[in-house]
Design brief:
Elements: H1 2-17, H2 30-34, H3 58-67, E1 92-96, E2 103-106, E3 119-121, E4 125-136, E5 139-144, E6 149-151, E7 155-157, E8 166-167, E9 176-179, E10 183-186, E11 195-200, E12 205-207, E13 210-214, E14 217-223, E15 226-229, E16 233-236, E17 251-255, E18 260-265, E19 268-274, E20 287-290, E21 293-302, E22 312-324, E23 327-331, E24 347-349, H4 351-360, E25 366-370
Parallel strand pairs: 4-22, 17-25, 23-24
Antiparallel strand pairs: 1-4, 1-7, 2-3, 2-6, 4-5, 5-6, 8-19, 9-12, 9-16, 10-11, 13-14, 14-15, 17-18, 18-19, 20-25, 21-22, 22-23
Helix pairs in contact: 1-3
């Protein structure tokens, strides 16, 4: 009896704080409402029409929440953190910080700072992979993979982003996703609704129970009386059927609108994470492709603008999997803006995520790139070879 009283009290409290219209509960028929001879059902979850009681009040609210996957206590988003060792790689990086000065490259460390260098490299968006460093009276120098010493005055050490996606080992019944930037939580959908005082932060993982339009944009419920704009969430909704052309139940799904990557094996979601795909106008081409080459590391360089102002040079890009000309799935150590477009057409992943995918993927595996919003060009004539 004590348990029943506690359950009834909890259900009444829950019912009292659910805003009108926040949850689409099962509608009660007019005939059942009019049948005053039937008693109210005990507070609980009723997913079908009851013949001997009326599932109204708290029961109607609880049932509506259950239909969208919300339980008491609420379940955390599915997924397990992969091994942190996946972020360990045998490379160290320095980034060019000089804006205008040419960068001197030496075969041996100079004895004086003003010693002429045998070779210079233009400044720009460039990262070197270095093996070691030495310091003498002339300053600090980094010995790079290319066999040159780079003056430390022109570069700085680069920190590798630590973000990781999740392995999935159970059926996903509720969509989930990552918060992309600090989100103030509203108590109901709409920017004019009261704030709860709660905040979510970048890379927090949340369940997404339902979404609806309010205040001119889409809002999503991520908890009881917790709503945030959908633009602040990169959402994973598992695919129920493979893309047309995939017959072995094994593929990598790249969602350009959500900036997410999902991995399927035996038609089941087994891994999910955030990506950074091509910036406008260097979009990642939608379509169905196959991984045609895997390389543990790769030096990438190129420019697409007519004045070559977007030139980049990146040494030891790790865990590269080419699938569409020069477009590849690979690790990105030069940024952590996962969840937003960032690349010249490749699919950027964190080091740990690219390592996980590299271990899983085989040459010949399918890569399905798509944009549910329809905003990405689909005409193959639009696309060049692509890049990092």
């Amino acid at each position: 009896m004590k348990r029943l009283i506690i359950g009834i009290t909890l259900a009444i409290c829950i019912f009292s704080v659910i805003p009108d219209g926040a949850v689409q509960a099962e509608e009660t028929t007019a005939s059942s409402v009019g049948n005053s001879a039937l008693p109210l059902c005990l507070p609980g979850i009723y997913l079908s029409q009851q013949q001997d009681c009326l599932a109204l009040g708290p029961s109607q609210t609880l049932s509506g929440l259950a239909k969208i996957g919300y339980t008491f206590p609420p379940k955390p988003p599915v997924g397990f953190n992969p091994s942190a060792d996946l972020a360990t790689i045998p490379y160290r990086y320095i980034k060019v910080t000089a804006d205008k000065k040419p960068i001197p490259l030496y075969r041996t460390p100079p004895e004086k700072r003003d010693d002429p260098a045998p070779q210079y490299q233009d400044p720009g968006f460039k990262y070197f992979s270095y093996l070691n460093s030495v310091e003498n009276d002339a300053g600090l120098f980094y010995y790079t993979k290319g066999g040159y010493y780079v003056d430390g005055e022109y570069v700085a050490r680069a920190a590798v982003p630590a973000f990781q996606g999740v392995e999935i080992r159970e059926p996903v019944t509720t969509p989930f996703g990552w918060i992309l930037s600090t989100a103030d939580v509203q108590s109901a959908p709409g920017s004019n609704q009261p704030l709860t005082g709660k905040k979510y932060y970048r890379f927090n993982r949340v369940n997404v129970y339902q979404c609806q339009d309010a205040s001119g944009e889409e809002w999503c419920m991520i908890g009881l009386n917790e709503w945030v704009p959908s633009r602040l969430i990169a959402e994973i909704t598992p695919e129920k059927t493979p893309p047309e052309g995939v017959t072995n139940g094994r593929w990598v799904d790249v969602n350009l609108f959500e900036e997410t990557l999902s991995v399927y094996e035996d038609n089941k979601l087994v891994f999910a994470t955030l990506t950074s795909t091509g910036l406008d106008p260097f979009f990642t081409q939608p379509g169905l492709f196959q991984i045609y080459q895997k390389k543990e590391s790769e030096t990438m360089s190129g420019a697409f603008a007519a004045d070559r102002s977007d030139y980049y040079y990146l040494e030891d890009v790790p865990f590269t999997m080419y699938f569409d000309k020069a477009r590849a799935l690979h690790g990105a150590y030069w940024h952590s803006i996962f969840g937003y477009p960032r690349s010249h057409g490749c699919v950027n992943l964190s080091i740990a995520d690219s390592h996980w995918l590299y271990n899983w993927a085989n040459v010949g595996d399918w890569v399905y790139v798509h944009d549910p919003s329809g905003q990405t060009p689909t005409d193959p004539a639009y696309y060049s070879k692509g890049g990092a």
